[in-house]
Design brief:
The protein has three domains: 3-85, Winged helix-like DNA-binding domain superfamily/Winged helix DNA-binding domain (Arc Repressor Mutant, subunit A, Orthogonal Bundle); 90-157 and 270-300, Periplasmic binding protein-like II (D-Maltodextrin-Binding Protein, domain 2, 3-Layer(aba) Sandwich); 163-263, Periplasmic binding protein-like II (D-Maltodextrin-Binding Protein, domain 2), CATH 3.40.190.10. By secondary structure, it is an alpha/beta fold. Helix 1 (3-16) crosses helix 4. The mean pLDDT is 87. The chain is 42% helix and 23% strand. The protein starts with a helix and ends with a helix. The radius of gyration is 24 Å and the shape is elongated. The strands form five sheets. A five-stranded mixed beta sheet has the order 4-3-5-14-6, covered by helices on one side.
Length: 301
Protein backbone atom coordinates (compact mmCIF):
# COMPACT_ATOMS: atom_id res chain seq x y z
CA UNK A 1 0.00 0.00 0.00
CA UNK A 2 1.16 3.51 -0.83
CA UNK A 3 0.31 4.96 2.58
CA UNK A 4 0.84 8.57 1.56
CA UNK A 5 -1.51 8.20 -1.40
CA UNK A 6 -3.99 6.35 0.80
CA UNK A 7 -3.96 9.24 3.27
CA UNK A 8 -4.57 11.70 0.44
CA UNK A 9 -7.44 9.58 -0.82
CA UNK A 10 -9.00 9.29 2.62
CA UNK A 11 -8.76 13.02 3.41
CA UNK A 12 -10.37 13.94 0.09
CA UNK A 13 -13.26 11.54 0.77
CA UNK A 14 -13.81 13.20 4.14
CA UNK A 15 -13.64 16.69 2.62
CA UNK A 16 -15.98 15.94 -0.28
CA UNK A 17 -18.24 13.44 1.44
CA UNK A 18 -18.14 11.35 -1.71
CA UNK A 19 -15.89 8.68 -3.20
CA UNK A 20 -16.81 9.87 -6.69
CA UNK A 21 -15.96 13.53 -6.07
CA UNK A 22 -12.77 12.58 -4.25
CA UNK A 23 -11.66 10.37 -7.15
CA UNK A 24 -12.44 13.13 -9.66
CA UNK A 25 -10.46 15.72 -7.68
CA UNK A 26 -7.45 13.37 -7.46
CA UNK A 27 -7.80 12.34 -11.12
CA UNK A 28 -7.91 8.62 -10.34
CA UNK A 29 -10.44 5.83 -10.95
CA UNK A 30 -12.99 5.45 -8.17
CA UNK A 31 -12.06 1.75 -7.85
CA UNK A 32 -8.44 2.70 -7.16
CA UNK A 33 -9.44 5.25 -4.54
CA UNK A 34 -11.78 2.80 -2.85
CA UNK A 35 -9.01 0.17 -2.66
CA UNK A 36 -6.64 2.70 -1.12
CA UNK A 37 -9.13 3.63 1.61
CA UNK A 38 -9.92 -0.03 2.35
CA UNK A 39 -6.21 -0.83 2.51
CA UNK A 40 -5.68 2.06 4.92
CA UNK A 41 -8.49 0.79 7.17
CA UNK A 42 -6.98 -2.70 7.09
CA UNK A 43 -3.54 -1.31 7.91
CA UNK A 44 -4.90 0.66 10.86
CA UNK A 45 -7.29 -2.14 11.87
CA UNK A 46 -10.11 0.36 12.35
CA UNK A 47 -13.10 1.55 10.35
CA UNK A 48 -12.60 5.15 9.26
CA UNK A 49 -15.77 5.73 7.23
CA UNK A 50 -19.43 4.82 7.32
CA UNK A 51 -20.69 4.25 3.79
CA UNK A 52 -24.37 4.47 2.84
CA UNK A 53 -26.13 4.72 -0.51
CA UNK A 54 -26.46 8.49 -0.09
CA UNK A 55 -23.41 9.73 1.78
CA UNK A 56 -20.09 8.95 3.40
CA UNK A 57 -19.37 10.10 6.96
CA UNK A 58 -16.40 9.68 9.25
CA UNK A 59 -16.45 7.41 12.26
CA UNK A 60 -15.09 8.95 15.50
CA UNK A 61 -11.80 7.20 14.73
CA UNK A 62 -11.95 8.54 11.19
CA UNK A 63 -12.40 12.11 12.41
CA UNK A 64 -9.38 11.80 14.68
CA UNK A 65 -7.29 10.22 11.94
CA UNK A 66 -8.34 12.91 9.44
CA UNK A 67 -7.04 15.71 11.67
CA UNK A 68 -3.68 14.01 12.16
CA UNK A 69 -3.34 12.91 8.53
CA UNK A 70 -4.14 16.39 7.26
CA UNK A 71 -1.36 17.91 9.39
CA UNK A 72 1.09 15.33 8.03
CA UNK A 73 0.10 16.02 4.41
CA UNK A 74 0.38 19.77 4.90
CA UNK A 75 3.81 19.39 6.52
CA UNK A 76 5.00 17.25 3.61
CA UNK A 77 3.76 19.80 1.06
CA UNK A 78 5.42 22.61 3.03
CA UNK A 79 8.73 20.74 2.98
CA UNK A 80 8.47 20.08 -0.75
CA UNK A 81 7.44 23.64 -1.50
CA UNK A 82 10.28 25.16 0.53
CA UNK A 83 12.78 23.38 -1.73
CA UNK A 84 10.94 23.97 -5.01
CA UNK A 85 9.74 27.56 -4.78
CA UNK A 86 13.14 29.23 -4.84
CA UNK A 87 14.22 27.42 -7.99
CA UNK A 88 11.03 26.92 -9.97
CA UNK A 89 8.21 28.85 -11.56
CA UNK A 90 4.69 28.17 -10.27
CA UNK A 91 2.80 25.64 -12.34
CA UNK A 92 -0.23 23.42 -12.21
CA UNK A 93 -3.98 23.79 -12.03
CA UNK A 94 -6.00 26.48 -10.20
CA UNK A 95 -9.76 26.30 -9.68
CA UNK A 96 -11.26 29.73 -9.01
CA UNK A 97 -14.89 30.73 -8.49
CA UNK A 98 -16.28 34.25 -9.02
CA UNK A 99 -19.63 35.99 -9.45
CA UNK A 100 -21.04 36.74 -12.89
CA UNK A 101 -20.57 40.50 -13.29
CA UNK A 102 -17.27 40.44 -11.40
CA UNK A 103 -15.96 37.81 -13.81
CA UNK A 104 -17.11 39.69 -16.90
CA UNK A 105 -16.16 43.23 -15.90
CA UNK A 106 -13.16 42.81 -13.59
CA UNK A 107 -11.41 39.44 -13.36
CA UNK A 108 -11.48 38.19 -16.96
CA UNK A 109 -10.13 41.48 -18.40
CA UNK A 110 -7.25 41.21 -15.90
CA UNK A 111 -6.42 37.54 -16.54
CA UNK A 112 -4.21 38.07 -19.63
CA UNK A 113 -1.70 39.82 -17.36
CA UNK A 114 -1.66 36.94 -14.87
CA UNK A 115 -1.38 34.28 -17.55
CA UNK A 116 1.44 36.16 -19.22
CA UNK A 117 3.31 36.34 -15.92
CA UNK A 118 2.65 32.68 -15.08
CA UNK A 119 2.24 30.75 -18.35
CA UNK A 120 2.58 27.34 -16.65
CA UNK A 121 -0.56 27.82 -14.52
CA UNK A 122 -3.86 26.54 -15.94
CA UNK A 123 -7.12 27.99 -14.65
CA UNK A 124 -10.62 26.55 -14.38
CA UNK A 125 -12.94 29.52 -13.79
CA UNK A 126 -16.33 28.83 -12.25
CA UNK A 127 -18.69 31.74 -12.88
CA UNK A 128 -21.88 31.95 -10.82
CA UNK A 129 -23.44 34.19 -8.19
CA UNK A 130 -24.46 31.20 -6.09
CA UNK A 131 -21.94 30.24 -3.36
CA UNK A 132 -19.84 27.20 -4.15
CA UNK A 133 -18.86 24.28 -1.92
CA UNK A 134 -15.13 24.92 -1.88
CA UNK A 135 -14.17 21.66 -0.22
CA UNK A 136 -16.54 19.38 -2.08
CA UNK A 137 -15.84 21.11 -5.38
CA UNK A 138 -12.07 21.12 -4.79
CA UNK A 139 -12.02 24.89 -5.43
CA UNK A 140 -8.76 26.63 -4.53
CA UNK A 141 -10.23 30.07 -3.89
CA UNK A 142 -13.25 32.26 -4.54
CA UNK A 143 -13.64 35.99 -5.10
CA UNK A 144 -16.72 37.32 -3.37
CA UNK A 145 -18.24 40.60 -2.31
CA UNK A 146 -20.10 41.42 0.88
CA UNK A 147 -19.89 40.20 4.46
CA UNK A 148 -18.18 36.90 5.24
CA UNK A 149 -19.94 34.61 7.69
CA UNK A 150 -18.00 31.34 7.40
CA UNK A 151 -15.31 31.14 10.09
CA UNK A 152 -13.78 28.07 8.43
CA UNK A 153 -12.50 30.26 5.59
CA UNK A 154 -9.54 32.61 5.37
CA UNK A 155 -10.22 35.90 3.62
CA UNK A 156 -7.96 38.62 2.27
CA UNK A 157 -9.48 42.00 1.49
CA UNK A 158 -8.69 42.95 -2.11
CA UNK A 159 -10.73 46.11 -2.72
CA UNK A 160 -14.00 47.99 -2.42
CA UNK A 161 -16.58 48.59 -5.14
CA UNK A 162 -18.61 51.76 -5.40
CA UNK A 163 -22.38 51.28 -5.67
CA UNK A 164 -24.66 53.36 -7.89
CA UNK A 165 -28.42 53.73 -8.23
CA UNK A 166 -29.54 54.22 -11.82
CA UNK A 167 -32.20 53.87 -14.50
CA UNK A 168 -32.68 54.67 -18.19
CA UNK A 169 -33.55 58.22 -19.35
CA UNK A 170 -36.88 56.98 -20.74
CA UNK A 171 -37.80 55.41 -17.41
CA UNK A 172 -36.98 58.63 -15.54
CA UNK A 173 -38.92 60.70 -18.07
CA UNK A 174 -41.99 58.50 -17.51
CA UNK A 175 -41.82 57.99 -13.74
CA UNK A 176 -39.82 61.02 -12.58
CA UNK A 177 -36.43 61.44 -10.91
CA UNK A 178 -36.58 60.68 -7.16
CA UNK A 179 -34.92 63.28 -4.96
CA UNK A 180 -34.87 61.17 -1.78
CA UNK A 181 -34.63 57.41 -1.15
CA UNK A 182 -38.11 57.40 0.42
CA UNK A 183 -39.60 58.38 -2.95
CA UNK A 184 -38.67 54.97 -4.36
CA UNK A 185 -41.66 53.58 -2.46
CA UNK A 186 -44.09 55.92 -4.21
CA UNK A 187 -44.89 54.58 -7.66
CA UNK A 188 -41.40 53.66 -8.79
CA UNK A 189 -40.49 50.30 -10.29
CA UNK A 190 -37.57 48.65 -8.53
CA UNK A 191 -35.48 45.91 -10.10
CA UNK A 192 -34.11 44.03 -7.12
CA UNK A 193 -31.20 41.65 -6.91
CA UNK A 194 -32.39 38.39 -5.37
CA UNK A 195 -30.16 36.30 -3.15
CA UNK A 196 -29.23 33.15 -5.12
CA UNK A 197 -29.38 31.26 -1.80
CA UNK A 198 -32.54 32.53 -0.08
CA UNK A 199 -34.43 34.09 -2.99
CA UNK A 200 -34.98 37.23 -0.92
CA UNK A 201 -34.50 40.68 -2.40
CA UNK A 202 -31.54 42.72 -1.20
CA UNK A 203 -32.78 46.10 0.06
CA UNK A 204 -31.71 49.33 -1.62
CA UNK A 205 -29.17 50.87 0.75
CA UNK A 206 -28.27 54.55 1.01
CA UNK A 207 -25.87 56.64 3.07
CA UNK A 208 -25.57 60.38 3.67
CA UNK A 209 -23.69 62.32 6.36
CA UNK A 210 -22.88 59.10 8.15
CA UNK A 211 -26.52 58.04 8.31
CA UNK A 212 -27.72 54.88 6.57
CA UNK A 213 -31.15 54.22 5.14
CA UNK A 214 -32.67 51.05 3.70
CA UNK A 215 -35.57 51.03 1.26
CA UNK A 216 -37.55 47.85 1.55
CA UNK A 217 -40.34 47.95 -1.01
CA UNK A 218 -42.04 45.38 -3.20
CA UNK A 219 -39.96 45.01 -6.31
CA UNK A 220 -41.38 45.21 -9.81
CA UNK A 221 -38.86 42.63 -10.99
CA UNK A 222 -36.40 40.41 -9.15
CA UNK A 223 -33.32 38.83 -10.75
CA UNK A 224 -30.93 36.40 -9.04
CA UNK A 225 -27.94 36.81 -11.39
CA UNK A 226 -25.84 39.95 -11.62
CA UNK A 227 -25.55 40.24 -15.42
CA UNK A 228 -29.28 39.69 -15.87
CA UNK A 229 -29.99 42.19 -13.11
CA UNK A 230 -28.10 44.92 -14.97
CA UNK A 231 -29.65 43.95 -18.31
CA UNK A 232 -33.14 44.41 -16.85
CA UNK A 233 -32.45 48.03 -16.02
CA UNK A 234 -30.79 48.68 -19.40
CA UNK A 235 -34.03 47.37 -20.95
CA UNK A 236 -35.91 50.12 -19.12
CA UNK A 237 -37.68 47.89 -16.63
CA UNK A 238 -36.86 49.99 -13.59
CA UNK A 239 -34.35 51.36 -11.09
CA UNK A 240 -31.44 49.22 -9.92
CA UNK A 241 -28.63 49.51 -7.44
CA UNK A 242 -25.48 47.89 -8.73
CA UNK A 243 -21.69 48.12 -8.88
CA UNK A 244 -20.31 51.12 -10.72
CA UNK A 245 -17.84 48.89 -12.56
CA UNK A 246 -20.76 46.93 -14.06
CA UNK A 247 -22.74 50.00 -15.12
CA UNK A 248 -19.71 52.09 -16.14
CA UNK A 249 -20.03 51.85 -19.92
CA UNK A 250 -23.80 52.41 -19.81
CA UNK A 251 -23.38 55.47 -17.60
CA UNK A 252 -20.69 56.82 -19.91
CA UNK A 253 -22.82 56.60 -23.07
CA UNK A 254 -26.04 57.76 -21.42
CA UNK A 255 -27.91 54.44 -21.60
CA UNK A 256 -28.22 54.66 -17.80
CA UNK A 257 -28.37 57.75 -15.60
CA UNK A 258 -27.21 57.80 -12.01
CA UNK A 259 -29.73 59.10 -9.49
CA UNK A 260 -29.59 59.90 -5.77
CA UNK A 261 -25.86 60.67 -6.06
CA UNK A 262 -25.86 62.39 -2.66
CA UNK A 263 -27.15 59.17 -1.09
CA UNK A 264 -24.61 56.68 -2.41
CA UNK A 265 -24.31 53.63 -0.15
CA UNK A 266 -21.09 52.60 1.54
CA UNK A 267 -18.49 50.86 -0.62
CA UNK A 268 -18.91 47.10 -1.02
CA UNK A 269 -15.91 45.04 0.16
CA UNK A 270 -14.40 42.23 -1.91
CA UNK A 271 -12.24 39.37 -0.66
CA UNK A 272 -10.32 36.43 -2.01
CA UNK A 273 -11.27 33.46 0.16
CA UNK A 274 -9.84 29.97 0.65
CA UNK A 275 -10.33 27.13 3.18
CA UNK A 276 -8.12 27.32 6.26
CA UNK A 277 -7.31 23.60 6.08
CA UNK A 278 -6.20 23.85 2.45
CA UNK A 279 -2.47 23.96 1.82
CA UNK A 280 -1.45 27.21 0.12
CA UNK A 281 0.36 25.98 -2.97
CA UNK A 282 2.92 28.10 -4.79
CA UNK A 283 0.44 28.75 -7.62
CA UNK A 284 -2.29 29.82 -5.20
CA UNK A 285 0.12 32.09 -3.33
CA UNK A 286 1.11 33.95 -6.50
CA UNK A 287 -2.53 34.26 -7.59
CA UNK A 288 -3.56 35.77 -4.24
CA UNK A 289 -0.61 38.18 -4.32
CA UNK A 290 -1.45 39.16 -7.90
CA UNK A 291 -5.17 39.67 -7.32
CA UNK A 292 -4.44 41.79 -4.24
CA UNK A 293 -2.13 43.91 -6.38
CA UNK A 294 -4.46 44.60 -9.32
CA UNK A 295 -8.07 44.07 -8.22
CA UNK A 296 -8.69 47.23 -6.23
CA UNK A 297 -7.79 49.57 -9.10
CA UNK A 298 -9.93 47.54 -11.53
CA UNK A 299 -12.96 47.90 -9.24
CA UNK A 300 -12.64 51.66 -9.47
CA UNK A 301 -12.14 51.55 -13.23
Amino acid sequence: MDQLMAMRAFTRVVETGSFTQAADSLNMPIATLSKLVKALEAHLEVRLLHRTTRRVVSTPEGEAYYEKALRVLIDIEDIDTSFRVSRSTPKGHLRIDVGGSTARDVLIPLLPDFMQRYPDIRIDLGVADRPVDMIGGNVDCVIRGGPLNDSSLIARHIGDAEMVTCATPNYLKKFGVPAYPQELCNGHRLVSYLSPVTGRAFPFRFRKNGQTHETVAAHYLGVNESNGHLAASVAGLGIIQTFRYSAKSYLADGTLVEILQAWRPAAYPFHVVYPQNRHLTHRLRVFIAWIAEVFSAALKG
